Amino acid sequence: MSQCFGYGVTSADAPLTPMTFERRALNEDDVAIAIAYCGVCHSDAHQAHNDWHNTNYPLVPGHEIVGHVTAVGSAVTAFAVGDAVAVGCLVDSCLRCAACEGGEEQLCEKGPTGTYNARERNGDGFTRGGYAEHIVVRDRFVLKVPDGLDLRYAAPLLCAGITMWSPLRRFHAGPGKRVGIVGLGGLGHMGVKLAAALGAEVTMITTSPSKAADARALGADHVLLSNDRDAMKASRNRFDLLIDTIPNAHDVAPYLNLLGRNGVMVMVGAIDFIPPVHAGLLLQNHRSLAGSAIGGIAATQGLLEFCAEHQVLPQCELIPMQEINTAWERMQRNDIKYRFVIDMASLKAA
Amino acid sequence: MSQCFGYGVTSADAPLTPMTFERRALNEDDVAIAIAYCGVCHSDAHQAHNDWHNTNYPLVPGHEIVGHVTAVGSAVTAFAVGDAVAVGCLVDSCLRCAACEGGEEQLCEKGPTGTYNARERNGDGFTRGGYAEHIVVRDRFVLKVPDGLDLRYAAPLLCAGITMWSPLRRFHAGPGKRVGIVGLGGLGHMGVKLAAALGAEVTMITTSPSKAADARALGADHVLLSNDRDAMKASRNRFDLLIDTIPNAHDVAPYLNLLGRNGVMVMVGAIDFIPPVHAGLLLQNHRSLAGSAIGGIAATQGLLEFCAEHQVLPQCELIPMQEINTAWERMQRNDIKYRFVIDMASLKAA
Q1: What is the mean pLDDT of residues B57-72?
Q2: Known Pfam families for this protein (chains A, B) (predicted)?
Q3: Does residue B236 share a domain with residue B91?
Q4: In chain A, which residues touch B (CB < 8 A)?
Q5: Structural domain boundaries enclosing B9
């Protein structure tokens, strides 16, 4: 065990405050990582506020982690001290079920181990995330940051990026495909960038006319205002794929209407009840309403490599750890373009 | 124009009664068919009762039609007098849009022409269906009944059969796939037979223990009682494909829970609102909720050939035309195993 300094919360109402906690000692297949940057995800605040009624306090959030290897266990061969590495939303899984063997560890049939708030697979205590100076992670769940990918920008790829990448790849976004990204936030802005880089014809679907210029700057070919009934009607039956990043409960019918033949709408943001939807909207055009949850380790590594090669970089605002409570408040009111990244050097300086 | 004798309804409350109506004269690409058998579909009664608020009276129902060619237009090359042929739910479409060119005429972007209650594509009057002595249909929408397929059994394949066949093929039902058919009626019994013939591991999912033996006789490997909470829980995450034939509005959550990784649930029966469903059920296991509507002409021809080759035959009860009102009443209370087929010889005898 080793002492680790970071920021966490002790109850649903408490702000993030500095705290010291224990990290496990290095197992033979573990990698110890000095954290350089950690992205700030909506989930961090949801979990801290116990919105899902399953939070184990004290909670140290953070699952968009990049840094450098400081030590490796005796059985680790893929990593060496000094390597630039990353950790996303998962730090362990059974590695034996069909999902794990199929490269979808996030769907592990035994339940994957989340980077924070999960019971450690070997039993004692809960995992703690990346709002901290270092972390110890099983080698199979550590990613390599490719040369040419700025560490700062790698962080948001680990959750926001892979959440969009996984359905874009699963449903074959690429040249000749019309892809709509619903909602322009942390997820949506990565969706636009990635879909455009994959060669798809990309439409940003938003309620905010003010976001149109930004969406185009990110790579959107078109902007569709979802509260413009005429525009929505004119866009019916047009899309092959929609990825819906809206973070709260909402009617999906207006979006389903946009899907053409065999079109798929993927929910990635709203973990909530979908209001009644008429089955006729699914029968028509043979549409599907699907869900997607982050992505597997190999897919995440593929994303990092794609982003390095194509220089697809999240738009980030770098903050010191001490400003995290303000950042969370701004994130809640969507006052961020488009992702906060904590500069962990600030932690050491404090 | 020619006079045609059949059975139809004149208002939402009226029973089916004998009537004479006009059929269009043979166009150069038309085929005239003497109807030998016509299957009885739930849609026939829905349309007659104006359940969808769009019925044009007088209505002559029937879209599971088999018979023999009596005449062909001057440009028809694929059919000759005497051929055994069939007509399903469609008698025309634009044949130019991406859906038609992709072999999914039922999803025609201009709107397909239904076999009854649709405006004739060339303008005058409405289409009238197969509860009649003959029908005139554009050659591209006429199917060949393969040698070895008993005409009586071909009829229910044209709607019930293709409705199940299309999603079974689209979602790759076959060896190694676990397929669940929800509901044992006209559609469900075809689903079990077809999925079994395709080599899938088939489960009948029903509320009725009394249907277990029948389901196994039809080819189901397993029967799962959807009101047995323990059995449903034990079957979670198990299925690759579910086809839901329940004909009225119902909660889909208990069925979504049964789907494993990348599993798909297809709605084919209930053209109604789906009660609120939690998006988490879709995110988990990357599930999809899809819809499917009958199938294209080429797919329907493929189904007829598959059924001839594998002798996959619907279980039918043959009735004379004069018993149609009783048959509809029995169909409404699900007192039929599993499809009524009208023997049109009875019409001529009357």
Answers
A1: 98
A2: ADH_N, ADH_zinc_N
A3: no
A4: 98-99, 102, 104, 107, 109, 170, 237, 261, 264, 267-268, 270-293
A5: 2-159+315-349
